[in-house]
């Protein structure tokens, strides 16, 4: 059977998807665009094929934050055994802006299309050479879940506090903790989710 590696592309950009398909068209690689880590489970694990998640972190805040949310959610699911098998992960995009909170993942060199193609093929053939993330997957507590849901619904801190029966200060403290867990640098990153970067479902993220 012909070997077929899988690249799961995390990006809303159709041009990027088509470009990667064209770039890898003469290779035993299939490009599959996903927005939620759970979608990866729809593709059976094969001992003969390798899998790579390619996460786009561009300059646009909402898209980049959605990508980092994907990474966090993926880490949680893998720690729970929900996504078995070898699964490499690589970042691409605005490295200067997003490198610090990216969790220790390798970045795709984008010097030219040839280097991109060679890097992807090398990782798919020898995934053990890729760096593993150093960030520990940390699921959210039930209260942090509710605060995140309220934030994504664009509720104010006071509204969230009243609904939970706690003080504004408690909401602020829990929000800081959940941002740290999710790899979000500041409130602007969190607001980026509410402004369009939360297309993927966050159901059961902390359960």
UniProtKB/TrEMBL annotation:
SMART domains: HTH_LUXR
Gene3D superfamilies in alphabetical order: Winged helix-like DNA-binding domain superfamily/Winged helix DNA-binding domain (1.10.10.10)
Transmembrane intervals: none
Alphabetical list of InterPro entries matching this protein: Sig_transdc_resp-reg_C-effctor (IPR016032), Tscrpt_reg_LuxR_C (IPR000792), WH-like_DNA-bd_sf (IPR036388)
SUPFAM superfamilies (UniProt xref): C-terminal effector domain of the bipartite response regulators
Keywords from the UniProt entry: DNA-binding
UniProt cross-references to PROSITE patterns, sorted A to Z: HTH_LUXR_2
Domain HTH luxR-type: 133-198
GO biological process: regulation of DNA-templated transcription
GO MF annotations, alphabetized: DNA binding
Record's protein name: Helix-turn-helix transcriptional regulator
């Amino acid at each position: 059977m012909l070997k077929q590696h899988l690249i799961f592309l995390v990006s809303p950009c159709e041009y990027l998807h088509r470009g990667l398909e064209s770039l890898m068209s003469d290779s035993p690689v299939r490009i599959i665009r996903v927005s939620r880590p759970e979608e990866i489970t729809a593709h059976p694990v094969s001992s003969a094929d390798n899998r790579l998640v390619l996460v786009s972190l561009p300059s646009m805040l909402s898209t980049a934050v959605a990508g980092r949310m994907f990474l966090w959610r993926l880490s949680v699911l893998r720690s729970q055994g929900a996504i078995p098998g070898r699964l490499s992960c690589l970042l691409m995009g605005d490295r200067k802006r997003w490198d610090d909170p990216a969790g220790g993942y390798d970045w795709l060199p984008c010097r030219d299309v040839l280097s991109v193609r060679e890097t992807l093929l090398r990782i798919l053939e020898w995934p053990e050479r890729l760096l593993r993330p150093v960030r520990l997957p940390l699921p959210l507590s039930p209260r942090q879940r509710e605060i995140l849901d309220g934030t994504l619904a664009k509720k104010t801190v006071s509204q969230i506090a009243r609904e939970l029966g706690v003080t504004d200060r408690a909401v602020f403290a829990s929000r800081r903790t959940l941002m740290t867990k999710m790899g979000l640098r500041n409130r602007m990153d969190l607001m980026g989710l509410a402004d369009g970067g939360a297309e993927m479902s966050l159901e059961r993220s902390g359960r």
